[in-house]
Amino acid sequence: MDKLLARGSGSLSAAARSRPRTAVVSMMAGVAVIAATVAVATSASAGTTLGASAAEKGRYFGTAVAANKLSDATYVGILNREFNMVTPENEMKWDATEPSQGQFSYTSADRIVSHAQANGMRVRGHALAWHSQQPGWAQNLSGTALRQAMVNHITQVATHYKGKIYAWDVVNEAFADSGGGRRDSNLQRTGNDWIEVAFRTARAADPAAKLCYNDYNTDNWTWEKTQAVYNMVKDFKARGVPIDCVGLQSHFNSGSPYPSNYRTTLQNFAALGVDVQITELDIEGSGSTQATTYGNVVRDCLAVSRCTGITVWGIRDTDSWRASGTPLLFDGNGNKKPAYTAVLDALNAGGTTPPP
Ligand code: G3I
């Protein structure tokens, strides 16, 4: 809108220099009417892409990106047009960034970060410490050696990307699916404090990045796993462990459906004094059913002031880790699905709560 107004007044002053005063006055009035009309029309029609529409609501709209797809013109065209946040889908994970102990490999992840920076997108880093996708050498470590390797990994990777990451998934998927406790893993067996050590290490390496705990099946407020993560975040906040955000992956399908209390979950995490981000959204299904659920998720995020952004886990259905479930916003040819329209409409609808 500012650009349109600025362009209008710029052409007026150029024209006005060669016209009599009365003509200038009446022309200015005319331009003012046009400018006001443009302003009203612009704010009423809102954004025409996911990123622009989310930005109008003070939020971001992101996607997971795979480095090896950055040579696919259709993929990159949609990426650059629609999204203003990217998450490397696999390229920042431990097996990718430290394939041999102490030897770091950033080529693929750097490619994504460079693409994001060149196109005005921010980056969510994913993930510094996780039981899965560890390199073989780490899988074979335990105890103090593994703890030290984790600390060194976090320090090295977060330092490499210092200043370039909006938010890090510092720890990913550390809770068990049932029972309300931690997931058993080699990292967990180094001691229960491994998660807070990871967060303190990340903070020391990149103080400006938001530090998130990220997990799945934490969407339904009544589930044990949701409660367990909530209690950890509450405890971290009480004890001053540096945590800034909670990521809800939100991979929805018939076995793990979108819950009607999703907004309550977002609100309750936010009330602990952390941002909430929807980090890996995909919803299996098709047509209006899928579209309605996508719209509901967006409306829930917009209703919670500290829900700062949404990332979908891929661009086209064929890019998805669950491709057969057609869970994304674009079909395999890159066409917008009804789910896309539902998301855009929800982003553009009024009455939302802006982030603080
Ligand atoms: O790159 C190799 C390729 O060279 C090889 O031919 C092929 C054969 O299987 O494998 C390819 O690697 C695969 C990689 O994705 C890239 O496509 C791995 O096998 C496969 O395991 C890996 O899956 C990733 C998965 O994490 C691993 O846990 C998915 O792409 C990725 O979307 C998924 O993302 C996770 C988040 O990190 C955490 N939350 C859940 C989410 C979905 O599982």
Give an account of the 3D structure:
The chain has 356 residues and is of the alpha/beta class. The protein has one domain (53-348): Alpha-Beta Barrel (TIM Barrel). Helices cover 45% and strands 15% of the residues. The protein contains 13 helices and 9 strands. The protein has helices at residues 2-16, 21-45, 50-56, 73-82, 94-97, 107-118, 136-139, 143-160, 194-205, 224-239, 262-270, 287-303, 338-348, and strands at 60-65, 85-88, 122-130, 167-172, 210-215, 245-248, 251-252, 275-283, 307-312. Strands 1-2-3-4-5-6-8-9 form an 8-stranded parallel β-barrel, surrounded by 6 helices. Helix 9 (194-205) links the parallel strand 4 and strand 5 (210-215). The longest helix has 25 residues, at 21-45. Mean pLDDT is 89; it is low at 1-45. The structure holds ligand G3I. Residues 89-90, 132-133, 172, 216, 249, 280, 321 line the site of ligand G3I. Ligand G3I binds at residues 89-90, 132-133, 172, 216, 249, 280, 321.
